[in-house]
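Researcher: Structure prediction, please.
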Amino acid sequence: MSRFSLSGNLRDAAFQKGADLFGIADASCFLHREYTGMRPSEIMPEIASVIIIGVSIPRGAFGTLPRGRAEYTNTLMAGTATLRILAFSLAHQVEREGYIATIVPAEESEFGYWYADPSTLNADLSLKYAAYHAGLGSFGLNHLLIHPDHGARIRITGILTDAPLEAGTPDLEGFFHSRCSTCQKCADACPAHAISRDGTIDRHACSDYMFRELGGLRCGMCIKVCPL
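Model: Predicted structure follows.
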């Protein structure tokens, strides 16, 4: 099967099974000088592609914030569970074509702290970076992926594979969303003061707020106020 046929089949299967977004990044994007995290080739040396699938989070989960943080957190976890099932099915579909595939941990919080290096709070590899190169959106001031249709109200996971698939292309507007420089509502709304207007973020302040102040519940305020 050609890379185009397999890519199309995977895309169709993802949407049929409930995904709201699907994209493919060429794994070589992680070799760019701008990327400083772990490369997927350190996990899978023969990797060729990173498949990104995602689901949109219902708007009602954000509308209840901040009082409804338990409901918001539960809704996020439901999205993660959905993605695990979707990714597992697609990984099997890839392997039926003679390739190998493994699933990257989905982001379990706004910045993936469950699977992060405790000293840096950076995940092993950035799914958002892969999603950007797959053409699924750009980065916001809050360092979250901004999808054209769903904004930051999404949850994503990834599949690493040696299958040479048809990759997407990055957003022509650039790495950061053009509206973020003049909006900055997320910086004003952040209760942990973790988001700076210059585009930097204090991951430890965000993590401490969620795990100490909120007892492990998710915050979500930077997403709630985002107009995109």
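Model: The beta strands are 21-26, 49-56, 101-104, 138-139, 145-146, 154-161.
Researcher: Thanks, that helps.
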